[in-house]
User: What shape does this take?
Amino acid sequence: MSGIDDRKPWRQEKIYEFCGYTLKISMFKNSFLGVSAYVWEPGIELCQHFQNMEMNFVGKKILELGSGTGIVGILAVLLGGDVTLTDRPDVLKQIKHNVSANVPSHSRHRANIGTLVWGSDHDNYPSDFDIILGSDIVYSPTQFPNLIKTLQHFCNENTIIYLSSNLKLRVGAVHFHEDILPKKFNSEIICSNNGNCIYKVTKKLPIDAN
Ligand SMILES: C[S@@+](CC[C@H](N)C(=O)[O-])C[C@H]1O[C@@H](n2cnc3c(N)ncnc32)[C@H](O)[C@@H]1O
Assistant: This one.
């Protein structure tokens, strides 16, 4: 992170450097977006993980849930992925702004943006994504059943889900990751830093249950 641009009162812009890209991320502070108008630590951790692992998403079809500012999905586009960034309808304007500001026009066709409210909208999307991304989306226990439903909808034998969560600050995150998620999926921590954990989650096949 290298700076904050406060010149426009309606938004705050922060600059991040990952994987050789400079990301200018705007947060629409006057749009009543609540938690969506921040870049959260688990998102930063996931971007850092992509950098550490020298991730290359060329040829991968990726879905991001709860994109917020879009920082993670945008980096995935820059790393070659065909990415669908999703969130609640009122957040899409912020995501569109950040995609336009960071994804060069020749790659823009690989950045799709759409409404996806967990538990209700997933049928509007195909279920053949290779990778599902979710950073700091585990924080509201009332939404856990909907989130699980949506993850189940999108997870097939070949799908890899990366969930990056803050276990220290987020209510119910430990319960979600240690009790709820493992009942339905295989889940392992692949990275842990100061309370932020990245989980690699895959479909539980019948043989795994034995
Ligand atoms: C804490 S923010 C994280 C944003 C971003 N992923 C990051 O790491 O900075 C959580 C995001 O999940 C979205 N979200 C929460 N509940 C949702 C639901 N039921 N359906 C769709 N999106 C939801 C919020 O709108 C918000 O943008």
Summary: The mean pLDDT is 93.
